[in-house]
Amino acid sequence: MRQIYLAATGQNRGKTTASLGLLDGFIKRGLRTGFTKPVGQRTVIDDGQPADEDAVLMREAFNLPEPYTLMSPVHIPRGFTRSFINGGVVEDLPARITAAHRGYAEHDLLLVEGTGHAGVGSVINLSNAAVAKLLGTPAIIISEGGIGRPIDEIVLNAALFAAHGVPVAGAIVNKVDAAAEPALTRTIERGLAIHGIRLLGTLPRRPILSNPTLEMILEGVHGNLIHPGPNLDLVIGGVSIGAMEPQHMLQHIGAGSLVIVPGDREDVISTIALAHGAAGGAEAAGERKAVGLVLTGGYIPRQAVLDQVRRADLFAALVADDTYSVASQVHDLLVKTHAGDKEKIEMIKALVADHLDIDRVLEVATEARFD
């Protein structure tokens, strides 16, 4: 069995996107491919079993037959880290990971997905670098955008893998705006080569892949729907925070923006509704259209203001949490792919197939050794 370890330079760099696309490419090449996330930080319950949410995503997206004991051997629910530090976790966690690893011995290929940057998991002695060493697999490091930032991040993470004796087989850079700067990929390639790191490919920026639908927003913030707007399946273009004076707020609302605003800021809510109404006022004034509002703090605007929102046909939801908490929740939704995102998953598969050389990635996979 051959194997590769997908790491990243931090959260939300595109590791799950790469995993989805690569797994799809491997399977389409007729390879019996397994997926495992040895250490997961985001635990969910699926079919009565705890597992990392990425393991659930891959299992459902590809109808994988392996149980979660193999796909997600160690998951870290709330309180686990504190319990480990205080001596409350006595189980041999590395042994659980290696046992799951042996369960894939008859596969052609195993895709191992890490968690966060190379050092994540160190608090329980299972950093990405330590786990890759444990499994004897080379690492591919994923970063995103720019020139200096991805190179700096990749080199930093590569140093920790090297300290554990883990070879870095290459890097993938996500969200590259090659259309605006055609030579960018070549520049990144040269910059990484200086440090002996091979660029395996880049993926272009696709905002639609990072942004949730209005329905996902409603579910994610546990909102009470006031008005659905024209289409709950609409993908938002971005997020704005309604913390300015109304006339200034309009200047900061981008195309397709979701505006998070306290429910008692009726001045802001009313201004947005009037400026972005269905009658075309926003377009006539040259303004860009908002698509919806999340009203925070549990404050319900007066009926007259709510009527303005409905006439403008803006999505609107009421939540009890404060604006900062809601913004944090929405941020989490901006970057995660869920098993129910069927259209998004298909777009990711196509994106990776079109822009990454799957065979080039396969070249760096190495044979696993089972003691």
Explain what you see.
- The protein has 17 helices and 16 strands.
- The chain is of the alpha/beta class and 371 residues long.
- It folds into two domains: 238 residues, Rossmann fold (3-Layer(aba) Sandwich); 122 residues, Udp-n-acetylmuramoylalanyl-d-glutamate--2,6- Diaminopimelate Ligase, Chain: A, domain 1, CATH 3.40.1390.
Looking at this protein, list some descriptive labels.
2 domains, 16 strands, 371 residues, 5-stranded mixed sheet, Rossmann fold, 40% helix, Udp-n-acetylmuramoylalanyl-d-glutamate--2,6- Diaminopimelate Ligase, Chain: A, domain 1, alpha/beta
Low-confidence stretches: 278-288
Q: Any idea of the CATH topology of the largest domain?
A: Rossmann fold
Q: In what range is the share of β-strand residues?
A: 15-25%
Structural class: alpha/beta
**Envelope shape:** globular
CATH class of the largest domain: Alpha Beta
How far is the first residue's CA from the last residue's CA? 14 Å
CATH homologous superfamily label of the largest domain? P-loop containing nucleotide triphosphate hydrolases
Annotated CATH architecture of the largest domain: 3-Layer(aba) Sandwich
Helix content, binned percent: 25-40%
The largest sheet is:
7 strands, mixed
Number of helices: 17
Total count of strands: 16
